[in-house]
Design goal:
The complex is a heterodimer of chains A (178) and B (222).
Chain A: H1 2-13, H2 18-37, H3 48-69, H4 93-104, H5 108-118, H6 124-131, H7 135-157, H8 159-167, H9 174-177
Helix pairs in contact in A: 1-2, 2-3, 4-7, 7-8
Chain B: H1 3-8, H2 11-17, H3 22-32, H4 36-59, H5 71-103, H6 105-114, E1 120-124, E2 135-139, E3 144-150, E4 157-164, E5 170-174, E6 183-187, E7 196-205, E8 210-221
Parallel strand pairs in B: 1-3, 2-8
Antiparallel strand pairs in B: 3-6, 4-5, 4-7, 7-8
Helix pairs in contact in B: 2-4
């Protein structure tokens, strides 16, 4: 679950579409398991995270080369083209209520900024120009909103359950939340 | 990147906002793979972003369509506000009417011109073009283009994005589509578009998904 989450974040940060990301994730985990079961294994267990990350990088590189070689219309992007796309599986009624509370506690201006970031997919330069704020303000605002959301989550479910839910896309807690 | 540097530089927030360079991003991902605390931060941001987007999409829906909305309970509270608003609207109407009929006779000529039949050019966009490879060339001084595309699936909302390939111009917003419509004819005013290539994207949104319905390239010539 942890590695599924890690790979999902990594792949979406590169603007890779959901179906391609799913293939890359499965291929990565398959290669990792194969190495552990049939290959030489991992010499240093503390390097396991770096190993999974590098296997994913290799899979991405191969995919990119194949797309370029085959002249595909949409090669896998190598360059980060902006904000991360959204994973629809993360949306739940309970979380939305918490997010609504967090947004309700913000000023009109801050709400508008977050709307531009997440809903209108506006670029940083446009937001800065339109709203008259420094680009650094965006991440400060996001940091504060995240902290409030996290507090609400922990208050509701406790620390451990919150971490498990967030790292596993809420799958384990859906039954209790709904 | 170590944990202290990641926290100090707010790397998780910058990762979500796409502010990291490729080298910084790779370094942060290497750290993320080994640091459960940063992973937790990134996962929290991810969940917040997904649900904030869904919440903003719901807020952009018409008030009457939102779940839990009760008109009856609101009417007594809204009555004074509505009366005041009505009076204000009457005054506004009188001012606008006086201006349009007495002070701005040229406006009539323009309205008459706008009411005349005009020729438009119809482009039929075939299905989803994932790479926006279909190119439609239009002239700024020519006739107004109309793009026709099918809606293979019904969504609660639709959004459009017009983005200049070389950067600089980007516009996005909701696209009003009537209920039950399976085919859309979309006009595109060219007045604000400088000559160049633009990618047009149409996305369908509802509570559970957002899917690109179509994308194409518009080449605007002088």
């Amino acid at each position: 679950m942890y590695w599924q989450k890690f790979l999902s974040l990594k792949l979406r940060s590169r603007g890779i579409s959901a179906d391609v990301a799913d293939d890359v994730r499965q291929e990565t985990l398959c290669r990792v398991l194969k190495t552990l079961r049939q290959g030489p294994g991992i010499a240093r267990p503390e390097s396991f995270g770096a190993f999974v990350n590098s296997v994913c990088n290799n899979v991405l590189l191969e995919l990119h080369h194949r797309a370029v070689r085959d002249g595909a219309d949409e090669p896998v992007p190598e360059v980060h083209d902006g904000r991360m796309s959204i994973d629809q599986s993360l949306i739940h009624a309970e979380r939305r209520r918490m997010v609504r509370d967090v947004l309700g506690g913000l000023s009109e201006k801050d709400r508008k900024i977050l709307r531009m970031v997440f809903f209108e997919d506006a670029g940083r330069a446009e937001i800065s120009r339109t709203m008259g704020v420094e680009p650094e303000y965006l991440r400060v605002l996001l940091h504060r909103a995240k902290a409030r959301f996290e507090s609400a989550f922990v208050r509701k479910h406790g620390r451990i359950a919150s971490i498990i839910s967030l790292l596993c896309n809420g799958m384990l807690l859906n039954a209790t939340i709904r | 990147m170590d944990h202290e540097a990641a926290i100090k530089s707010q790397a998780a927030e910058r990762y979500m906002l796409g502010e990291l360079s490729m080298a910084e991003r790779d370094a942060f991902e290497e750290h993320l793979a080994d640091c459960s605390r940063c992973m937790e931060d990134a996962a929290t941001l991810d969940a917040f972003a997904a649900n904030a987007r869904a919440e903003f999409a719901a807020q952009s829906r018409p008030l009457l369509a939102r779940p839990g909305f009760r008109l009856a309970g609101l009417l007594p509270r809204l009555a004074p506000v509505m009366a005041f608003s009505g009076a204000l609207n009457l005054v506004l109407l009188a001012v606008i009417g006086y201006g349009a009929l007495r002070l701005l006779p040229s406006m009539r000529a323009r309205i008459a011109e706008a009411g005349e039949p005009r020729v438009a050019q119809l482009w039929v966009v075939h299905g989803v073009s994932r790479s926006a490879s279909a190119v439609y060339t239009v002239s700024r001084s020519g006739v107004q283009p109309v793009f026709r595309f099918d809606l293979p699936q019904r969504f609660a909302h639709y959004t459009y994005t017009i983005e200049q390939r070389t950067g600089g111009f980007r516009k996005t917003g909701p696209l009003a589509v009537a209920a039950g419509v399976e085919r859309v004819d979309m006009t595109l005013p060219l007045a604000n578009l400088e000559p160049g290539d633009y990618v047009i994207r149409i996305v369908g949104l509802d509570q559970s998904q957002s899917i690109e319905i179509g994308s194409w390239t518009l080449r605007v010539t002088p």
